[in-house]
Amino acid sequence: MAQKVERFCSPGKGNGLRAVSSLKAGELLFSAEPFACTVSKRVIKSTCENCLSRKDKLRRCSQCKIAHYCNASCQKRSWPEHREECRRLQRLHPTIPTDSVRLVAKILSKLVNRSHGPAEKLYSLEELESHLSDVTEEKRSQLEDLGVALRLYLKEEADCLSELPPGLDPISVIAKVTCNCFSISDGELQEVGVGLYPSVSLLNHACRPNCVMVFEGRILRLRAVRDIRPLEELTISYTDVMTPSQDRRKRLREQYCFLCECERCVTADKDSDMLSGPEEDWMSLQHNIPRLELLQSEQKWEEVLRESQALSGSRAGTVPDRNVYLLRVLDFTLDACINLAQWDQALEFGTRTLQPYRLYYPDPHPARAIQLMRVGKLQHFLGRLAEAQETLRQAYDVMKVTHGEEHALTVELTSKLEEIRAEMDSS
After folding, report:
1. CB 3.0 to 4.6 Å from 238: which of 63, 188, 205, 277, for a disulfide?
2. For the segment 169-222, what is each residue's pLDDT rounded down to a tens digit?
3. How far apart are CA 64 and CA 306, in angstroms?
4. Cα angle 376-377-380, degrees, rounded to a multiple of 5
5. Contact residues for 295 (Cβ-Cβ < 8 A; gap 6+)
6. Dihedral, CA atoms, 53, 56, 61, 66, nearest 10 degrees?
7. 67: phi > 0 → left, psi -120 to 50 → alpha, else beta; which?
């Protein structure tokens, strides 16, 4: 297949990626395997170390007792990569280092035995920006703390760090990873891991990007969400665009060391919607979101439901659903209702999120596709066939662009639409 993208010097931004020729919305532009990746600590018991599939029952590595696998085949394929990590995890058992430490350790092992692979087709790890000269003293101190944790994890292997390629040292590698790694999510956008994809790091940021990334296991797929002209720069969003401009700029400045000057940030075009309602009311919602995130991560669904309903109920009539903090609370409520099998309530809260999602994701976006799919499935389960058909058709229109027609979720969605059509024909 002819190469559709090329590296170039982006004015004012440094390196970038651009289209070689005209591209259509939904077109697959680039696929990439990671240089290295690791399963997120939060889901390490329910995610296969090899293929990153999430399952209720996985077989555990009998040696480190940390890594999990779908079956013997996945475990065998993973062993060449897992061998060194297995020894390190055995030494620390039952402590599990952070995702960053485990990822950097894998990267350092590969660098010591240096060989360029397909992950570096357009951009090598050595070329990645570390931004060490731009970071604050606080950030540098955090990087040094990670360096200490890394040496403790590597133990006697830390002596091999002197064999790194010229110009690289543990702190610079940690800094490169911090600025360039990607959270790996499953088809439903649930985080399952973190990985480094050097060639994809060429993509610059835009708060209204023309491309999105979707993962299939370890593989990252880049697709256009709008028609793209020849030599037009390809962009993704480094942060959630459903966030007020001040917060987006702050995160981009802190993690990626640049001030976003895009039209959306300069004009704060959606802020009046995102922060609508009395400030004292939505600030209270904002303040409680970390608490709901913690309860959700611990799967304490009854507490999530009780607290999220209390928060949204107390703001009824004052804060509209398009306020991003209320919208987050509605999403927590939806998740809790689904996990507690409270289907009617789940549909009520899910339906309230659809218009705000349409407002904040005007171009095809995976998050909107997944939200439509969740609501459509609830409508189908509750026998509301005509509504389910329309909602899932909208989900398909987005997903065929963001995920592609061959993605497992798109195939599942097509099957669901056919099932609904058959039920409507027979009723």
Report:
1. 205
2. 888 999 999 999 999 999 788 899 999 999 999 999 999 999 999 999 999 999
3. 39
4. 90
5. 303, 304, 307
6. 90
7. beta
What whole-number distance in Å separates Cα of residue 31 and Cα of residue 223? 9
> What is the pTM (predicted TM-score) of this model?
0.92
Written as one string, the DSSP assignment of 174-206 is HHHHHHHEEEEE-TTS-EEEEEE-GGGGGPEE-
How large is the C-alpha radius of gyration of the chain? Answer: 23
Are the beta carbons of 122 and 4 closer than 8 angstroms? no
Does residue 194 contact residue 183 with C-beta atoms inside 8 Å?
Answer: yes
Closest Cα partner for 97 from 50, 149, 37?
A: 149
Q: Token pair for residue 59?
A: 């077989």
SS (H, E, C) 129-175: CCCCCCCCHHHHHHHHHHHHHHHHHHHHHHHHHHHCCCCCCHHHHHH
Query: Which of these, 96, 104, 100, lies nearest to 170 by C-alpha position?
Result: 104
Residue-wise pLDDT for 117-145, tens only, equals 778 889 999 899 888 888 888 888 999 99
Give the closest residue to 312 by CA, choosing from 291, 343, 285, 342. Answer: 285
CB distance 144 to 169 below 8 Å: no
Q: Which amino acid is at 102?
A: R
Q: Among 235, 234, 229, 261, which Cα is nearest to 248's?
A: 261
ω before 366 within 30° of 0 (cis)? no
**Residues paired with 204 in a beta bridge:** 235
- Band the pLDDT of 1: cuts 50, 70, 90: very low
- 31, β-bridge pairs: 221
Angle at 5 (CA atoms; ends 52, 106), nearest 5 degrees: 35
